[in-house]
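Hello,

Our lab assistant flagged a job as stuck in the queue for most of the afternoon. It eventually completed. Since we weren't sure the result was trustworthy after the delay, we are filing this so someone can double-check. Below is the sequence as submitted and the structure that was eventually returned. Let us know if re-running is recommended.
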Amino acid sequence: MGSLFFSDVHADARAIATLASCIRRPVFAESFGHIDRIINLGDILHRGNQPKESIEIINALAQDYPLISILGNHDHAFLNDIVVSGSDLMSVASHEQLRNSPLLSIFDQMPLEWVQGNMLCVHGGPLNLGTRILRLKCWQRLSHNVGDSFTGYHYTTEMAFAELAERGLIHMVCGHQHTHICCRKTADGIHEYPIDFIPFPAGTDKECALEVATVPLDLPALFRIGSCHGDEPEFAYADDSVFSYIRILQGDR
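-- returned structure --
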């Protein structure tokens, strides 16, 4: 099964529109494989100023592909009137226009996690820590330290792999922190795997310029993908053997 993942759109309609256009092009399927499911790892909202347009693009993707959306901490904050940093006055105003919109039905019954085969998909972290807001899975943060923080509960890779093993899972993919990382569990411990992006040949299709970094799925691994906003949105694709980090080179288009 081929699964595509994106996270942290943050109301950037241009970025998610670029992703949608890229994955619909024949060169993408020819290069990576068929997309059997798209998994949105959360944070559609806040920071950017096009939440309405971003939701509409994601809804359009759901018409073409089976799509699962997971709740992000900024989505959770918006829905529950929790103040978080990072949104300017234009962003706040555009989000307030959404308050009574039927588009918000996208968040109805949105889960905090999704299990795809042997992979746990979650916005922040995998731990079951009760119902306190900053301990919810959408607020948890991968860290070298452990414990409560004003940004969300901090957990380590050791804690994540222990939770996966207890649930009989092998891999985890998350977003939330806007920077990509891969940690793999080997016989002698947990090690960070280098994410080295290289230009991906697009043949004659110059409208889908990509950089790709691949990781074999031969060991238990924690994958955190970069954000799908800004001038070089990131996402990922995984089949049964390889996890691919993908960056779109938009330039000034």
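-- support follow-up --
The delay was a queue issue, not a problem with the job. The result is valid. The mean pLDDT is 95. The radius of gyration is 17 Å.
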